[in-house]
What we know:
Blueprint: H1 3-27, E1 37-43, E2 46-50, E3 65-68, E4 71-78, E5 85-87, E6 94-97, E7 101-106, E8 109-113, E9 119-120, E10 126-127, E11 135-138, E12 152-153, E13 161-162, E14 169-175, E15 185-193, E16 199-210, E17 213-220, E18 223-228, E19 231-234, E20 240-242, E21 246-249, E22 261-264, E23 271-272, E24 281-285, E25 291-298, E26 303-308, E27 313-319, E28 321-323, E29 331-334, E30 337-339, E31 348-350, E32 359-362, E33 364-366, H2 372-404
Parallel strand pairs: 14-22, 14-23
Antiparallel strand pairs: 1-4, 2-3, 5-33, 6-32, 7-8, 7-28, 8-30, 9-10, 11-12, 11-27, 13-25, 14-24, 15-16, 16-17, 17-18, 17-19, 18-21, 19-20, 21-22, 25-26, 26-27, 28-31, 29-30
Helix pairs in contact: 1-2
Amino acid sequence: MLRSMFSGVSGLRAHQTMMDVVGNNIANVNTTGFKASQATFAEALTQTIRAAGPGGEAMGGTNPIQIGLGTQVSSIEGVFTQGSLQMTGRSTDIAIQGDGYFVLGQGANREYTRAGSFSFDRSGALVTSDGVPVLGWNADDTGAIDTTGAVGPIRIPVAQVIEPEATTGVELGGNLSADAEVGDTILVTSTVYDSLGAALELAVTFEKTATNEWEATAMVDGNAVTVAPSTLQFDSSGALTSGSPLAISGYTPPGADPLAIDVTLDGSSALVQFGGSSSPQIYEQDGQAIGFLQDVAIGADGTLIAEFSNGRRQDAGVLATATFANEGGLTRVGDSRFAESANSGAGVLDQPGAGDRGVLTPGALEMSNVDLAREFTNLIIAQRGFQANSRVITSSDEMLSDLVNIKR
């Protein structure tokens, strides 16, 4: 049989494999997090008809005479360029800009993906669309997050609450008008909280009793309370010289601990007495009502931030991302996911943005990196290569036919 026929057969096989790769790329042009592949060919075995000769004094050297025996697929490599980002608006859709893979699975069974379409299940676990847990580091009871420890499934309990805190400190500032007449009063109100988290109205009244002197009284939910000291004095430059802080006590809300609130008047926005209008206000306080979990936001560094009904926010966990010494060595396991192989190296885990790894874009997904223009060009190349090799087989067959027909 002619060697050219077997070479043509090898060409058909190689170009069929190339067509399979191109077809798979085109089929996944809209697959989230998909990374394209490309097939490369290499020369197959070569038959040596005559070896090379070194030559001598009388005769020159001779080159080898060799005949190639076709082609073969040398590799099918992944193309790991960045895919374009598509905004979705879902807070749990996450895209990675730069290096890194999300870590999925449980225990030692891990998979890696760039497809960040996640959601929370009914238990508060962050999972993929088919229920595989997303791994990272959870906050401990104190709210601290140790990103150097072992990773585990990210979980934010849906019934998580922030306990209420009683108000113990209030900062009040602004201006008490020096133009006010003796007997004029100014009222300042704010919401404070008792030890059960119940909201109470704190009303502080300032009454001018003399030049550069004011008297402070207070009420909590309409109940008179004790204020000590109650006299505020200002110097000739309008600065407060005595009366801060005002210690408010003498009221116990039903079922709660007695209130004890210090009203600071000489904080970063101090209470002063200048001419013009009065503008005192409470601009900062501690204490809070009970907070129920309402939403979870994800930062560019992978931090999950729990948002509560009382306006408070606290870190709840950090997503882990993995990088590899040779990401081309990763093994595809389907669903835009990869697994470690002997040639990829072990995944190095850290939070997004650490070192040279990529950051996250919440509310977006990374789309396929398939380049349709290149794939259609490769489609034509594969088709024409297949046709050309089929012509080699046809021509070889005609030659064999002519050989057989020599004897009539």
